[in-house]
Write a structure and sequence with these properties.
Elements lengths: L8 E4 L15 H6 L1 H7 L3 E4 L3 E2 L11 E5 L6 H13 L3 E6 L3 E3 L3 H6 L12 E2 L20 E4 L4 E4 L6 E3 L5 H16 L4 E4 L29 H16 L3 E5 L5 H8 L8 E3 L8 E2 L1 E5 L4 H14 L4 E3 L8 H5 L5 H14 L3 E5 L20 H12 L4 H11 L36 H6 L4 H14 L1 H5 L1 E4 L6 E8 L2 E8 L5 E2 L6 E4 L9 E2 L4 E4 L1
Parallel strand pairs: 1-2, 1-17, 2-5, 5-11, 11-12, 12-13, 16-17
Antiparallel strand pairs: 3-4, 6-10, 7-9, 8-9, 14-15, 18-19, 19-20, 20-24, 21-23, 22-24
The chain binds 6-O-alpha-D-glucopyranosyl-D-fructose (ISL) and calcium ion (CA).
The site of 6-O-alpha-D-glucopyranosyl-D-fructose has 14 residues, from loops.
Length: 533
């Protein structure tokens, strides 16, 4: 019961994890060959970003067949082997469930182009206005319009993401039945559950135009409607037959909405990924970056810790730039990498680690837009061009926010292509791979990897770190301080988010520090993280 409350979950972006056959694309046999690494790290479950059949307009988040494996990644036998091999190491597999949209290559969509087909209402189709205007004024997640004209059906279809990701129409009950079958298909294969992509926007309450906004005009028509909750409860009925786990990726949720999505008695999701702490270094939209504000970050984390019984904890994923340059310091790479690890592994909730985070991988050092692959970056570039934003500024915006920052191949060793592939990788390997790689960190007891391993073990050992209550402490930023408390047991966590030493008046015996020291006397070094007993 509730295994996920004691778990550390590791996210794999299959394309960039390990290539086994030299075609430059990571694959399932590659993942199998690296399971020992994950076991040693102390991982209890893996969330696999999509491995289904897909034309890869959005690297697998555009699915053309939910019951097939993308041949680039291997076969269904490989997938079954992965589930079995992981299981024998005590590791569960979670699939990425992308059901807000399918690829326009999906059989349903191709049929849907014909108005007389049984699939005619699987998507949102609509006439434009009389003078060639779009059905409404909505704008999408990747900065574009949300409607695309289909010449065969002579209507527009809705796509909140890329053009080839058509939104499924949940007003049609048949769609939900299809999804239930897909759940059963994978649960029968032995997966433990799902990470549910943009799961709070499935239900479009109406297709009326929305209030004009800088980004995502129309959002109030589809974010977290009551019908969306009903859909989740229906899916839960299937999930319950298998005691399966779900974490929802939920956009723009407040703590109250998050509570409604994961309160145990409501039988919807087990936990949700919130985005609010990711907004502490931006103005309104992610493309408008500002300086990291530690106070906003701490206040936000504290608020979510207080208001939710259980959080899905994360600092990185495949959509976000790397955490060290963002919340830490490249100058204090090792110290701040360990400090962020300490934060992630000592808050209350389930920590999600993204591949490469455990060795302190940094943002992609690309130089030109054509080195990028991300559909979002390309769309944003096009959009900014349309508004005559000069090239230099466009590049500045995109290079800092591109999702490819976190999608470069995993750095296994200092050999060719960082040990990722014998061939030419689909996305460049970071040039820092000679100094940042797993092989080197495995040898070094003071490395970021060793620190993650040690803290993962500590978390396993000490129930207070898993189940204890979160108690915030009075502290002035850049210091973040809190306690974890369970019965008589109490641990204190002190994190100095700055390049300067910081004094505190807290006492206790030293359990861990990311600096070599015997005891703690009240001064934290730059980016020092301390756990006191
Ligand atoms: O990454 C974002 C902006 O850069 C988010 O707005 C992101 O688009 C949103 O969190 C939804 O993400 C998920 O669904 C997308 C896919 O591209 C992302 O990779 C996925 O995590 C569409 O399926
Ligand atoms: Ca391959």
């Amino acid at each position: 019961m509730d295994w996920w409350k004691d778990a550390i979950i590791y996210q794999i972006y299959p394309r960039s994890f390990q290539d086994s056959n030299g075609d430059g694309v990571g694959d399932i046999p590659g993942i199998i060959s690296r399971l020992d690494h994950l076991q040693e790290l102390g991982v209890d479950a893996i969330w696999l970003s999509p491995v289904y059949k897909s034309p890869n307009a959005d690297n697998g988040y555009d699915i053309s067949d939910y019951r097939e494996i993308n041949p680039e990644y291997g076969t269904m036998e490989d997938m079954e082997e992965l589930i079995a091999q992981a299981k024998s190491r005590g590791i569960r597999i979670l699939m990425d469930l992308v059901i807000n949209h399918t690829s326009t290559d999906h059989y349903w969509f191709r049929q849907s182009r014909d108005r007389t087909s049984p699939y005619a209402d699987y998507y949102y189709w609509s006439h434009g206005g009389p003078d060639g205007t779009l059905p409404n004024n909505w704008t999408g997640f990747f900065g574009e319009d949300c409607w695309e004209f289909d010449p065969q059906r002579c209507e527009y279809y809705l796509h909140l993401f890329a053009k080839s990701q058509a939104d499924l129409n949940y007003h049609n009950p048949a769609v939900l039945e299809e999804v239930k079958d897909i759940l059963r298909f994978w649960l029968d294969k032995g997966v433990a559950g799902f990470r549910c992509d943009v799961i709070n926007v499935l239900w479009k309450e109406s297709l009326d135009s929305g209030k004009k906004r800088l980004a995502l005009t129309g959002q109030e028509r589809y974010i977290s409607w009551e019908e969306n909750h009903r859909i989740l409860r229906q899916l839960r009925e299937v999930l319950d037959e298998y005691q399966a786990f779900t974490v929802g990726e939920t956009v723009f949720v407040t703590p109250q909405q998050a509570r409604d999505l994961c309160a145990p008695e409501r039988r919807e999701l087990n936990m949700v990924f919130s985005f609010q702490h990711m907004e502490c270094d931006q103005y309104y939209v992610k493309w408008l970056k500002r300086k990291f504000r530690p106070k906003v970050f701490f206040d936000c984390l504290t608020r979510w810790q207080r208001e939710l019984d259980w959080n899905a904890l994360y600092l990185e994923n495949h959509d976000q730039p790397r955490s060290i340059p963002r919340f830490g310091s490249v100058r204090y790479w090792k110290e701040s990498g360990k400090l962020l690890a300490t934060l992630l592994l000592t808050l209350r909730g389930t920590p999600f680690l993204y591949q490469g985070q455990e060795i302190g991988m940094l943002d992609f050092d690309f130089q030109r837009i054509r080195q990028l692959n991300d559909v979002e970056s390309k769309n944003v570039d096009r959009l900014l061009r349309r508004f005559h934003v000069p090239q230099k500024l466009r590049w500045r915006i995109i290079s800092r926010t591109s999702r490819d920052n976190a999608r470069t191949p995993f750095q296994w060793d200092d050999g060719p292509q960082a040990g990722f592939s014998q061939g030419r990788p689909w996305l460049g390997v970071n040039h820092n791979c000679a100094s940042i790689n797993l092989a080197q960190q495995e040898e070094d007891p003071a490395s970021i990897w060793s620190w993650y391993k040690d803290l993962a073990a500590l978390r396993r050992e000490r129930e207070v770190l898993r189940r204890g209550e979160f108690v915030p402490m009075e502290a002035a930023p850049p210091l973040f301080a809190y306690r974890r408390r369970l019965g008589e047991e109490q641990l204190t966590v002190l994190l100095n988010f700055s390049d300067d030493p910081t004094r505190v008046s807290v006492q206790g015996s030293l359990l861990r520090s990311n600096y070599p020291r015997e005891r703690f006397e009240g001064v934290l070094q730059p980016w020092e993280a301390v756990i006191l007993e």
